[in-house]
Sequence to fold (311 residues):
Amino acid sequence: MNLLGVDVSGACATFSRLCYFGAPWYSVIVQWYRQQRSDHYRYPSSDDDIQVVYESKNYIVVNKDDLVPIDAYDAPSQVNVTQQVKKWFERRETERFFKQEPSPTEQQIEQWSKNLAQKIEDIRYCHRLDLGTSGCMCFARSTVASFLAYKAFIDKRVLKYYLALVQGHLHANYPIFVDVPIGENASSYGRIMCTNDHPYCTYPKAAQSHIDVLEHGEYDGKPASKVLVRILTGKRHQIRLHMNYLGHPIVGDYIYTEPIDYKPHRIMLHARSLTIHTDQELVDALAKDPFLTQFDPKWKRTKTIYPINRW
Fold:
């Protein structure tokens, strides 16, 4: 990237890393920078740009786009997932109501509007995803459903699988189990995390990940691997840190790579599936795999290591 004839790519990447990670405007910087780097970059421009992958009377699961904040607190000026879900629900319910026969009376419309406003207000997310992570994200449609989902997370009745493209060819004849605690990095400004072998790691907590190597290939001409990760705990940036610990950081991770991998249009981490065993129902959602050549021509598979039809 040139500014007045001077290449400032490295400076922009370094500046973005030095910014406070939790600041509302941080995602705006990253979004702008990614747009400068790649024609392949995609960012939802409206509330309508959302894909629902699971719906019941209690829950809605959507395929969150990368770099889309979860709510207005994370980035007030941007489209956020919570806003998208509520607008989608309002639009869908409105279409259903006014299609009914016979046409509703004014009194019925007034009462329906009040009920709909309450239903929209009750919608809330059950868990979080990192800003740069795409994939399955669950929303509860009521306070009771939200509590039961929370209880399922506490009782470890949740299965979460992620797909990631990582740097280099990861070789393993069997699944890899990583059991490395994660804590906050006291030497960094903002909520930057680190593994417990870091000299400034504070308050480390247990973190376990189960990793299967699916494919070898190249991303933008460099060796890369596609991996399937099941997280047994849910620590902040867990997959990013555990892959970095193995020496295979995630492609496009602008926080935990050395040197900073700022060229890809996104962090190559995707919440592929989500299963929640609640006391009300079994939530089972699957989001499409974005790491295919048809969606991102820079990724080219050269070898299948562990074929799994579902993934």
Remarks:
- Residues 6-25 have pLDDT under 50 and may be disordered.
- The chain is about 25% helix and 30% strand.
- Residues 81-99 form the longest helix (19 residues).
- The longest strand covers residues 208-219.
